[in-house]
Amino acid sequence: MKVKKESTRTCISCRKSRTKVELVRFVRTPDSKIILDPSGKISGRGAYICLDEDCFNEMKKRKRLAKELNVEIDNERAVELEEQFNELVKKKR
Q1: Is the torsion defined by CA of 22, 10, 54, 41 positive or negative?
Q2: Is the dihedral of CA 76, 68, 24, 46 positive or negative?
Q3: Mean pLDDT, the chain, whole residue set
């Protein structure tokens, strides 16, 4: 019987390697929209971050999400993403 190996990804903020289950995925869709992907299955370029407000704040401060996904993120969208992220953190606790 084979043991399935857990997929790991690196947080774009703290650069720690974790399993996909421990991270949240943001996606740049083919039409260049940035969305939060709790399922981890939406098609597009993805970037992962820890389920940690400190990591999110550091990512926001250094604009790492925009750099990683190679797209501009306006302030309105950034606020929406932060609200969605905070809701997800509350659900996971």
Answers
A1: negative
A2: positive
A3: 93
Could you give the angle at the alpha carbon of 91 between the alpha carbons of 26 and 32, nearest 5°? 15
What does residue 65 show for φ and ψ, rounded to 5 degrees?
-65, -45
Indicate yes or no: pTM above 0.85: yes
Q: What is the CATH number of domain 8-92?
A: 3.30.1230.10
Helix (H, G, I), strand (E, B) or coil at 26: strand
DSSP-based helix, strand, coil % in the chain, nearest 5: 40, 25, 35
* Helix residue ranges per DSSP H, 1-93: 53-61, 64-69, 75-92
Instruction: Read off the pLDDT of residues 8-36 as tens digits, 9 standing for 90 and up.
Output: 999 999 999 999 989 999 999 999 999 99
Residue with tokens 């609200």: 83
b/e burial code for range 60-73 (CB count within 10 A of at least 16 → b): beeebbbebbeeeb
